[in-house]
Design a protein that fits this description.
Blueprint lengths: L1 H9 L1 H22 L5 H14 L21 H4 L7 H18 L12 H9 L3 H16 L6 H15 L2 H15 L2 H12 L6 H10 L4 H4 L4 H5 L1 H12 L4 E2 H12 L7 H7 L5 H18 L10 H25 L10 E2 L2 H6 L1 H13 L1
Antiparallel strand pairs: 1-2
Length: 365
């Protein structure tokens, strides 16, 4: 049995399938045991239905409250009409777990054993599904020839999935574009997701300015959201220049640091994919258990508004988990392939020998 398991782990697609089954089974079971919030799901479903019917859900006369996804989300959220929130959570977790198995990012699997996942299940969103699909489409495109139109198509679809949640996916898209420089994919994405829905964007942007998502004021989940962009910018520079990064790991780190309202939970998972030491897995699980025990409120005092009470605790928990994930990733070896690596150019010019040596030593391992 041990030999069969080791053989499976040597093959990337078998690993991915094993990870998919792991995530699907784990979260599929969890959604049957815990309460899943359907508020965001129904809001998004109503918005997609309105778009399909030709209505503008952001216009003043036909405004649908609490629908904030961009117009082109229609292409990627239509399964809301045939799949419930539990299905999206299970599929999203399966895609993320499969991606971690595919990349041999074993430390990231510890994320599935923490209260962060419990929080995401309770929230009942589609974030894991969108981010997982986007990451996989980019990974599949990267395996094809640079001259292949299938590669460009996969990039366009991947960018679309990720940009439905720009506070989490925008940085990954920008870094991927910087590495691959597939301008055909960029132009095609702009035409499909921009010009095709140009009539909707003024109303959508007006809603974002005048009636932003409540989470931007209550549960920001990001360093910039809680402490301001100047401090977050300094931290982002230090993190970026601390080592070479895989583009999806650095994109997740920037999402958790720089976004005014970060995507809950998923940036932490992406950052953990940069932690390569097996010892880090146990360390992260122990740290997560301690943070949950210290910060998750068990009882809310009477006569106290719930969210105003728990906000400070959730802030400590989410930022604490992100900070520790960044620490583990920074202390881990650099990416194994330069084709996926993002370097801090200032550091590269000043100390090129050290960075190149680090990459070479990592390959030898």
């Amino acid at each position: 049995m041990k030999g069969l398991f080791e053989e499976i782990l040597q093959h990337p697609w078998r690993r991915a399938l094993l990870g998919f089954v792991f995530g699907l089974t784990l979260v599929g079971t969890a959604t049957q045991l815990w309460i899943v919030n359907t508020f965001d799901y129904h809001n998004m479903r109503r918005g997609i239905l309105a778009l399909l019917e030709g209505s503008n859900p952001w216009a003043e006369a036909t405004r649908l409250s609490d629908f904030y996804n961009p117009p082109f989300a229609l292409f990627f959220l239509w399964p809301l009409l045939i799949m419930g929130p539990k299905g999206f959570l299970s599929l999203g977790a399966a895609l993320l777990a499969a991606y971690a198995f595919y990349r041999r990012a074993w430390v990231a699997l510890g994320w599935f054993g923490t209260a962060t996942l419990v929080w995401l299940i309770a929230a009942g969103g589609v974030n894991m599904y969108l981010m997982g699909m986007g990451l996989w489409l980019l990974a599949l495109g990267d395996r094809l020839s640079a001259k292949s139109w299938w590669r460009t198509l996969l990039f366009v679809l991947g960018y679309g999935f990720l940009l439905v949640k720009p506070q989490g996916g925008l940085f990954i898209v920008l870094l991927h574009i910087y590495l691959r420089r597939d301008w055909s994919a960029v132009i095609l994405s702009a035409l499909i997701y921009g010009l095709a829905f140009a009539a909707y964007y003024p109303d959508w942007l007006h809603v974002l300015r005048t009636d932003p998502p409540p989470g931007q004021n209550i549960e920001k989940h990001s360093l910039a959201g809680y402490f301001g962009l100047p401090l977050a910018g300094i931290v982002a520079i230090l993190v970026t220049c601390s080592r070479p990064w895989a583009y999806w790991v650095l994109g997740g780190a920037w999402a958790g640091i720089l976004s005014p309202y970060a995507l809950p939970g998923v940036p932490i998972f992406l950052v953990l994919m940069g932690a390569r030491s097996r010892k880090a897995l146990l360390a992260y699980l122990l740290y997560a258990a301690g943070m949950a025990w210290l910060t998750w409120p068990r009882e809310v005092p009477p006569q106290v508004e719930y969210y105003s009470y728990v906000d400070a605790f959730l802030r400590i928990f989410h930022l604490g988990m992100l900070g520790y994930a960044l620490t583990l990733a920074i202390l881990s070896p650099a990416p194994t392939t330069e084709t996926d690596a993002i370097h801090c150019r200032l550091l590269w010019k000043q100390r090129p020998g050290r960075l190149r040596t680090d990459l070479q030593q990592t390959r030898l391992r």
